[in-house]
Design goal:
By secondary structure, the chain is mainly β. Helices cover 3% and strands 49% of the residues. It is built from 3 helices and 43 strands. A hairpin with a 4-residue loop joins strand 39 (431-439) and strand 40. The longest helix is centred in the first third of the chain and has 5 residues, at 121-125. The N and C termini lie far apart (87 Å).
Length: 491
């Protein structure tokens, strides 16, 4: 294709001379691929200046030599090279989303709309190719369900780029969805309400979640995607509590958000989110898939963070009522099992670990639950609806072999106490361990010791005055091969 401006060329059809000039109207959205919209006007004039407009859209003249125009009719960008030469033509295919069988958490950054205006959900979803025989489409608590060529119910009526959705493809094959249009401006602000929000990640560059959400972290206590979850805990220190985020370690880039991700955040207060674009981009990396354990994903999951030694354990699976509900490969000190617990499950959640070295698996009906909301139980109940759990397999498996033969005795008195509580620990040899105190909700409030203790008797004190208010507290004494939990009452 040749583009000329104010250039007289010969028309081969009728040997007349014509002047071609391109005028365009550009709506600018400097936010990513195919973000410019343009209508093109062509003015044909003969050598006497007589001509007609082929299009009624007109604005700034197209200048060759670097300017770009986009023809939304054929999805191509035209880039002029010089004032007298041909132009480059760039094809911009529409973005495409893939929906494999099962659940996909997704957002739609590119849509045919202005700003963040909504589009109609049902006509948009009916462009899936091939159309699944049945599917579910969720936004928060609203559902649109398709089966036997009928939508019923149709509660999700609109789709917006700033929101996130869950689609359950119940068909037999992968479906694809083309999303032509323009990408939402990366500076677009999202209003978050108190409680759970399903939002879309529409910036082009992937970034770590905690970096991308930096501006609103004080107002969030949960961040969750289809691949991982992060949860806020409060650690007691002098002068108050300090928030910290509990996430699986994973490979570098594991918790990166990518273009088109759906993110669930829980806001403790209303706030406004603008995705942080100042943080450095990072390549997304997926977690390794388990080999020994398989399970079926459901609409949502509860996170079980497992502390284990990757030198001794290769995979950990979670089971309820004899069914595997989630598993993880153990490569780091903390890994996450996404536990897809059926709604009708009522039994205990048991864990099983597999060791490649011994080619064996072992079920654990008891394990150490750390905190925050489980109050140091020895097993997770399927009926519990806590967002997440922290589980340690290190003490259960006796991983610290240095303390394999020691004996100790821990006495706590007086209990109940109106003032000072004494912890007296006697050991028959040098040991390594920790002694921690938690409040009744499982929040860590004080560590009495951590590290090595020589053979003999050691005393530690917990004072009511200036340290703890009246109430019930839990203490945990942990070493490499044992754990002892107890309860104390401060009056």
């Amino acid at each position: 294709m040749y583009i000329f401006e104010k250039t007289t060329i010969k028309n081969r059809r009728n040997h007349n001379y014509i002047m071609i000039k391109y005028l365009i109207h550009i709506t600018l959205f400097f936010s990513g691929l195919n973000a410019l919209q343009a209508g093109i006007i062509t003015i044909d004039k003969d050598e006497n200046g007589v001509g007609n407009n082929k299009d009624t859209v007109y604005f700034n003249p197209f200048k060759t030599g670097g300017d770009m125009i986009v023809n939304p009719e054929n999805n191509r960008i035209y880039i002029g090279n010089h004032t007298f030469s041909n132009a480059c033509v760039v094809q911009c295919p529409p973005m495409e989303r893939k929906f494999e069988t099962g659940w996909t958490w997704a957002s739609f950054p590119t849509l045919e709309r202005q700003n963040d205006d909504p589009i109609q959900a049902i006509p948009f979803l009916e462009t899936l190719d091939p159309m699944p025989s049945s599917m579910e489409f969720w936004y928060l608590y609203d559902l649109s369900e398709y089966s036997n060529n009928i939508w019923n119910p149709q509660d999700v009526t609109e789709i917006q780029s700033s929101k996130g959705y869950k689609l359950n493809n119940l068909g037999s094959s992968t479906a694809y969805l083309e999303t032509p249009g323009n990408t939402l401006n990366e500076d677009h602000a999202i209003s978050l309400t108190t409680g759970e929000n399903w939002i879309g990640y529409f910036p082009m560059e992937p970034r770590k979640a905690l970096d991308a959400l930096e501006g609103v972290l004080d107002d969030l206590d949960m961040i969750k995607t289809q691949d991982w979850g992060c949860y806020k805990e409060y650690i007691a220190e002098k002068g108050g509590t300090v928030p910290t985020w509990v996430c699986a370690v994973g490979p570098e880039g594991f918790t990166a958000l990518t273009h088109g991700d759906m993110v669930v955040v829980n806001a403790t207060d209303p706030t406004t989110l603008v995705w942080n674009q100042e943080a450095p981009p990072i390549s997304k990396k997926d977690a390794e898939k388990t080999v020994q354990y398989s399970y079926t994903e459901l609409a949502d999951y509860q996170s079980i963070f497992v502390e284990a030694d990757p030198d001794q354990i290769d995979e950990v699976g979670a089971f309820v009522d004899g069914q595997c509900i989630g598993a993880t490969v153990v490569n780091d000190s903390i890994e996450e099992i996404k536990a897809y617990i059926p709604a009708d499950a009522t039994g205990d959640i048991t864990l099983e670990y597999y060791s490649e070295g011994t080619k064996s698996a072992m079920k654990l009906t008891e394990y150490t639950i750390l905190f925050p909301e489980t109050k140091l139980d020895r097993v997770i109940k399927a009926r519990n609806k806590d967002r997440y759990y922290r589980v340690s397999l290190k003490n259960t498996l006796g991983i610290d072999e240095d303390n394999s033969s020691y004996n100790s005795n821990l006495q706590v008195y007086p209990n109940p106490s109106g003032g000072q509580v004494t912890f007296s620990l006697s050991a028959n040899q040098k040991i390594n361990g920790t002694l921690d105190v938690y409040n009744s909700t499982g929040v860590h409030v004080k560590q009495l010791f951590e590290g090595a203790l020589d053979k003999g008797t050691h005393t530690f004190y917990l004072n009511k005055q200036g340290e703890l208010p009246s109430g019930v507290y839990l203490y945990t004494f942990k070493t490499g091969t044992s754990i002892k939990n107890g309860k104390i009452v401060i009056q």
